[in-house]
């Protein structure tokens, strides 16, 4: 978050203040990553001396995201999207990415069948990650894919936001894995295959699709056909 997201946030803000449409899209995506991180800390981290800071962080991220998201003129947006944008391919990826958070359900369902709390729940009272990923990210990804198929303006903005989030979450997963390893927390092969590798792979694909989508956005409206 400090070495990747903060610098990217500064760049996005500068572009946004210059009136760049791409900057607006980038800013929305980066802010949703901060919102996701803030929600994880404010709702999931064990109570500590930084709790009130987590609350401020969450509130600032939430309202900044709302302001950035609603600042995009959806009615005028289609005129800024190039016809060559691979809309269907990005939509299909949205559906695939939307299924990826469902891996968290494996442990939850297994625990439900066994009549006990999930093993990895440890000292926490609930799985905030499952709530955020399955309850919010998965439906948002499916909605983005559906809207893209229907050429709805909201689909372009929602898809870009989720692609940027997925890109940055991939970096977070790598960072978390490295820190866990350095602290002597060894992940099993199954955990790496189920929880680490899929998110890293999806993140790499998301980088490529994000670049494609942003390249097909222009500040000036596209020329009318005919």
Strand/helix succession:
HHHHHHHH
What is the helix tally?
8
Low-confidence stretches: none
Number of beta-strand segments: 0
Q: Helical content, roughly?
A: over 70%
> Biggest sheet, open or closed, and with what strands and sense?
none
Number of domains: 1
pLDDT averaged residue by residue = 88
Shape: globular
Please give the radius of gyration in angstroms.
19 Å
Question: How far apart are the termini?
Answer: 47 Å
Q: What class do helices, strands and sheet pairing give? A: mainly alpha
The percent range for strand residues is: under 5%
Can you characterise this structure?
The chain is mainly alpha-helical and 226 residues long. It has one domain. Helix content is 71%, strand content 0%. The chain is built from eight helices and no strands. The chain has helices at residues 5-17, 21-44, 51-70, 87-99, 104-114, 128-149, 153-182, 189-215. α6 runs antiparallel to α7 (153-182). The longest helix has 30 residues, at 153-182.
